[in-house]
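Project standup — Tuesday

K.O.: blocked on the structure for the chain from last sprint. Re-posting the sequence here as requested.
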Amino acid sequence: MTKAKTEDALQILRRRYIGDDKRLQAELDKERISAEVARQLYDARKRAALSQQQLAELVGTTQSVISRLEDADYDGHTVKMLNRIAAALGQDLDISIVGAKIVVTTGIKTESETGELQELLDLCPTKEMLKRDWLPGWANLQELRSSLRAFLGPAPSLGAAHLRVSNASKADQVALLCWLTKAQIEAERTTVGSWNASRLKAGIRELVKLSARNDGPASAVQWLEDRGVRCVVVRHLPKTYVDGAAMLLEDRKPAIALTLRHDRLDNFWFTLLHEVGHALLHKRQLGRNPIIDQDLERPAKDRVEEEANCFANDAWVSLSQWQEFRRRARDTPTLEQISGFAESLGISPALVAGRLRHELQRWTHYGSLLGQGQPLAIIRKRCPVF
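H.V.: unblocked you, prediction finished:
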């Protein structure tokens, strides 16, 4: 039956059974409005992917009340209750009087919009983000969705971000995107000094010598920010395996982010210097996309990462110095030899021990020199950790 024929049939039935009876007309209009309100409430709840019980908890009522409201025969809808439901679903509620009729409009979002928001909630590590207070300012599920969408921006994507690990499929890409977004947000909020690449490069040895101080990691963050490099610590999200990242922000100043996933002094300094290397050596790449480093303790697999690794090592010791130390110390340097060599360079022995463990592939050696658990505790005393 076509639409026109359907309307004709309804008009015939209305004339035949109701006619000019105003009482019957009023009852029919009332039932039609009740049915329309019930349908819109049901559709809004389904599109929000909520059960009647879940909506009831958001509204502060019982499941049986929601069930009655969604019954087409129920005529006890109140403006107050409709407002409460609309607020819980993040909908606009528009009630107007047209003639003798009540017209209710809830501003229900399109199915595609709601599906997109639901997909974000399904894929993002929302619980962990809420635990860390990354999504503040929401009072209901719809507001949480909006907050999440605002957090990620209008077109969330990792794009062609350079990933250190080629088999990045192991990582949760959406969680990685959330981590990178948080790093960018916090970096944008950080106030830094004037940026000068030559000045930064000339002062690298000065930066590394901060490692000999008890507050070395926190002092390093401040040192970089004084020289125009934003440096933020954003703990990694589950299944991201990310150690750090380098990026350019809107003002074209570089920013680096660290996770302290391996909370050791040797890892902190290597990762920090590795990201600084990206900021100094790979500005062209950063101008296109961030560089995200996962599993830095694995061997580098491309030129960009090899260059950053070399920069991190050369920042505190020349190749000739290192080769001489390895020749004198033989196969397995002692703790005393490591400490003595580090003292001669004015740096923390953790840098020497960490590099030795990597080169020797002896991951159980020199644990007492690595500063396990120190970087995070030191940074938290003076810098925010997200």
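K.O.: great, moving the ticket to review. The radius of gyration is 31 Å. Residues 157-380 form one domain.
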